[in-house]
Amino acid sequence: MAGSLAQRLDRSLSQLKGVAVLPLLILAVPWVQEIIDQLVFGGRWNLPMVPGGPFLGVLTAPFSHGGFGHLISNSLWFLPLSWLVLAKSRGDYLAVWLGVYAMSIPVWLFWHQASHGLSGVIYGLLGYLLLIGWLERRPLSILCRSRPCSPTEEPCQVCCPS
What we know:
The protein is built from seven helices and no strands. The chain is 64% helix and 0% strand.
């Protein structure tokens, strides 16, 4: 049993290896922006999505934060949720990002306050994971494996009880 668990873990990690760096690269953008903001502009260089402002704000808002505390708290949620979605598929990860950007447009058009940060992306990732868990009828399947149980493999007793 321990050997099969180790084999499954190795297989999951090898599948994730190629894409595990993607969230780190994405997260590097807001970190660089925040460091420049704090060191050069004294915390006054934000790239928020402003009501009635330029559309560019919709694209830059996830990468702009209101300080290191905001960025750290977003980073702590963004990385594990990104890796869980990427364990499912890169296409699903891209779909979540596109969905978040699509939903940002009505917020940009109708919301009365400026907004920025990765929170919208985090909610999108979390919403995706909750929906997939519900649709697969195995809430823990997202944490255990990157695809539904196969009849040719030994099932995981947590995700795919007999």
